[in-house]
Each structure stands twice: as C-alpha cells, then as structure tokens.
TrEMBL record:
<dbReference type="InterPro" id="IPR020904">
    <property type="entry name" value="Sc_DH/Rdtase_CS"/>
</dbReference>
<dbReference type="Pfam" id="PF13561">
    <property type="entry name" value="adh_short_C2"/>
</dbReference>
<keyword id="KW-0560">Oxidoreductase</keyword>
<protein>
    <submittedName>
        <fullName>NAD(P)-dependent dehydrogenase (Short-subunit alcohol dehydrogenase family)</fullName>
    </submittedName>
</protein>
<comment type="similarity">
    <text>Belongs to the short-chain dehydrogenases/reductases (SDR) family.</text>
</comment>
<dbReference type="InterPro" id="IPR002347">
    <property type="entry name" value="SDR_fam"/>
</dbReference>
<dbReference type="InterPro" id="IPR036291">
    <property type="entry name" value="NAD(P)-bd_dom_sf"/>
</dbReference>
C-alpha cells in the first residue's frame, strides 16, 4: 500500500523540498499552502513529471475548520494518512521584545504552535492503532532558534519553536504505544524566502560567518533529515531532534 504524507506549508522553501523528496521516495503527497497557489501547483507539477502523485489543498493550519477540511480532502482523495510534516511556519519583522504586541504574538503562535497541534491531532486520530489505524510518523519543524532565543531578531518566533520542542517530547511519549513516532528537525540558517518576512532577504549571507561550516543550508538538506525520520530506518527513534544547522 502506498504511503500518504501531508506536508503543511509545502508550496515553498523547506516544505516544497520535503514534498518533492517524499514523492521520489514513493509517498503520495498532499501539498498544503496558505495563499501562494502558483507555487503549490508548481510543486505538484514537478512531482507529476517525476511519475509521482500529489494534490494541493489551500488551508490555514491555524484555523480549526480549515484543518478539518484539509484532512477530509486527504481522506477522500489520497486515503489513509501515514505521515505528517508540520512545516508551515511564520516569523515577522526583526525587532526587540519591547516592540512586540499581542496581535503579533497571536499570529506567530497561531500558525507555528496551534497549527502544529491541530494538524498532529487529526493525524493521530487517523494513524493510531487504538482506532484501527496503521501507525505512522510525524516530524515537526522546530529551529535552532529554540536553543538560541533569537535575541534582537524575533524572540516570539524562537519561543514558538521552544513550544514545538516541548510538544514533540510530550506527544512522542503519549502516542508511542499507538504505533506513532514523533520527532523534530531543527534547521539553522536555510536559504528560503522566510527571511524576507523578517525584513532581511539576505540574512543568511550576513550570518553565515557564525556557522562552523561557513555557509547557509539548502532546503533539500533539511528535507533529507525529515525523510529519514519519517522512514522505517528511524524505527527506534522517537521524541528526538536532529539539528541541521552546519554545526551551530
Ligand atoms: P517559507 O517562508 O519559505 O515557506 C513557508 C510556507 O508555509 C509557505 O508555503 C506558506 O504558504 C506556508 N504557510 C505559512 N503560514 C501558513 C498557514 N497559516 N497555513 C498553511 N500554510 C502556511 O518558510 P521556510 O521553508 O523557510 O520554513 C519552513 C519551516 O522551517 C518553518 O516552520 C520555519 O519556522 C522552519 N525553519 C526555517 C528556517 C530557515 O532558515 N528558513 C530555520 C529554522 C526553522 P504560502 O506559500 O501560501 O504563503
């Protein structure tokens, strides 16, 4: 039976690279996105050119009704889910904590934390062998920011990734006996469009000198770690973290 994977925020960046690599490895893939339909369709077109199977679904992972519709679409069009990558994430303009208001905190935590919880909840309901599911694997995108705290840039974002680390440990222990493994990848400075949201598109070029490997990472390099954690090669790995950060 083919494996079915949902990657949230898969139209661009790390999510897109993960969706493409997963299709090469034989997954049927749901490419979720928020606004950028063209980018998501381009990922599906690449997958189809390679002989794979993928669908796009527009859904805001922070909105419960959207998440329910996203999963119902997967149930109907791809079948039983076996893997989830909680990748959708946002950050806002660089600044200090003094400048962060409640509305911004709500936006950042809504997508990064609440979105990951809601998507994992629906995945567990489907994967759990206690409900007749076939088990599965979840990978959460955390960040090195969870360790560093991102001072003077976005402590709110870093704190949301700290929450993802706690979530990963707790959920992994909670669902281990239901046949589900839960792990996280912590990328460092990766070349994607996310840094433009912080107001500095070339941020990786500025900060790469602080990385022992002296360069930013590629989305494809993060995807390799995600796919390993999803695979049976990682069958005894749960509640674990892989830093893909050039030694930082
Ligand atoms: P990008 O900004 O390149 O892409 C983000 C993707 O998430 C887009 O496809 C976007 O959709 C989607 N998205 C945003 N909000 C939502 C939402 N509410 N619901 C559904 N989809 C949403 O990000 P990256 O690839 O750089 O980051 C991916 C993950 O990796 C994030 O969790 C990020 O925090 C983490 N990470 C990234 C690092 C980096 O240096 N790039 C470092 C450490 C962690 P659309 O295309 O429609 O806008």
């Amino acid at each position: 039976m083919r494996k079915v994977l949902l990657v949230t925020g898969a139209g661009r960046g790390i999510g897109a690279a993960t969706a493409r690599l997963a299709a090469e490895r034989g997954y049927d893939v749901c490419v979720n996105y928020l606004h950028n339909r063209e980018a998501a369709l381009a990922v599906v077109a690449d997958i189809e050119r390679g002989g794979g199977n993928a669908i796009t679904v527009a859904a805001d992972v922070s909105a419960e009704a959207d998440v329910m519709r996203l999963y119902e679409t997967i149930d109907r069009q791809l079948g039983r889910l076996s893997a989830l990558v909680n990748n959708a994430g946002v950050l806002e303009r660089q600044g200090r904590v003094e400048a962060i208001d409640a509305a911004r905190l709500q936006r950042v935590f809504a997508t990064n934390v609440i979105g990951s919880f809601l998507c994992a909840r629906e995945a567990v309901r489907r994967m759990s062998n206690a409900n007749g599911g076939g088990g599965g694997a979840i990978v959460n995108l955390s960040s090195v920011a969870a360790r560093t705290g991102s001072p003077n840039e976005y402590v709110d974002y870093a704190a949301s990734k700290g929450a993802i680390d706690s979530f990963t440990r707790g959920l992994a222990a909670e669902v281990a006996e239901q046949g589900i493994r839960v792990n996280a990848v912590r990328p460092g400075f990766i070349h994607t469009e996310m840094h433009a949201s912080g107001g500095e598109p070339d941020r990786v070029e500025r900060v790469k000198a602080f990385v022992p490997l002296k360069r930013g990472g590629r989305a494809e390099e993060v995807a390799q770690a995600v796919l390993w954690l999803l695979s049976d090669e990682a069958s005894y790995t749960t509640g674990a973290f892989i830093d893909v950060a050039g030694g930082r």
